[in-house]
Amino acid sequence: MFVHGAKRRILSRWKLLPRHHKFTASRLKDSRIDITDVVINGNKLTAKVSVTNHHIPYVTKLCREQVIGGVVSFQIKVVTAITSDEHSRMTVYNNLVFVKFVKRRQNDELNYVMKLTSPELNVEDQRFTSDDGTWHLINESRRQQLAFDITVLLEVVPRVNSFACLYDDEELTDFEMRGMDGSVHVHRAVLAAASPVLRRMLGGVWRETAEGCADMSSTTRATLQDLKNYLYLRTLPDTGVEELLLLSACYMMPELEKRCVDKLVSNLTPQNTVEMIEFAAKNKMTQLMLAVLDCVQSSIVRVADMRDYLQQPE
């Protein structure tokens, strides 16, 4: 839709160059888009993009797909139409720059928002909420060659949360989560809305339903409080994210799991990467494992630095 509209605008003011020219395969190949210096750190991508145009009346160029966070594919497209000014007879390169992102898994029920920044294209924190592969026009340029930096930040769209006003409520709390060193009081409805596992537990003929409490003896009170903070306020702790990640997997809360993975990966260092890999393997945290390996593959965390750390005397 964007391309057709742009072509109509071009044709209203310009005249396309004749189509009868013959173009060699090498010229078509040299008219391209390149993406280099790609760095993917968890849910963030940075890269440099260059566009090379040759004397071809109309061409569409696609860069290779980039996977962000293991959950979406990101791609850039540039459509170029060469036109001629009837008065000055100057050749003009009309470039339309598009971006898109699309979920990689069909059963992914989370919603994502992409924030894009490119100073050279005069784009700053532009938000896109369509993750179905729709092409979004972000820039129009009349330069023969283009070069720009791009930063993409992928975020999970939080579900509308109406429970914040109940966070400090004590009168209506009707359920207790018992940890190894203390309890946290919550509302049944909030737990049921957050997790299908808890919904079945609270709605059936389970002991927890009758007693109004659930024993989580392997979990600390601090982690249960972190869970409550997320369910009511959508906040994450600065420490103890690993334990919260385990709860999210146990009770089937994919949005919380994704946010925990993003936070852990954003704080990776050569000192903690090996421990994080061991934690992911031991607890079968596939998404965390893939995200950590992406960081290693992208050299965000270098294997040489990890080796140097491991070889240090204790």
TrEMBL record:
The species this protein was found in = Spodoptera frugiperda (Fall armyworm)
User: Which gene name belongs to this protein?
Assistant: LOC118265783
Protein name per the record:
Uncharacterized protein LOC118265783 isoform X2
Q: Which Pfam families match?
A: BTB
What domain of life does the UniProt record list for this protein's source?
Eukaryota
Supply the PROSITE patterns for this chain.
BTB
Query: Where would I find the BTB domain in this sequence?
Result: 173-232
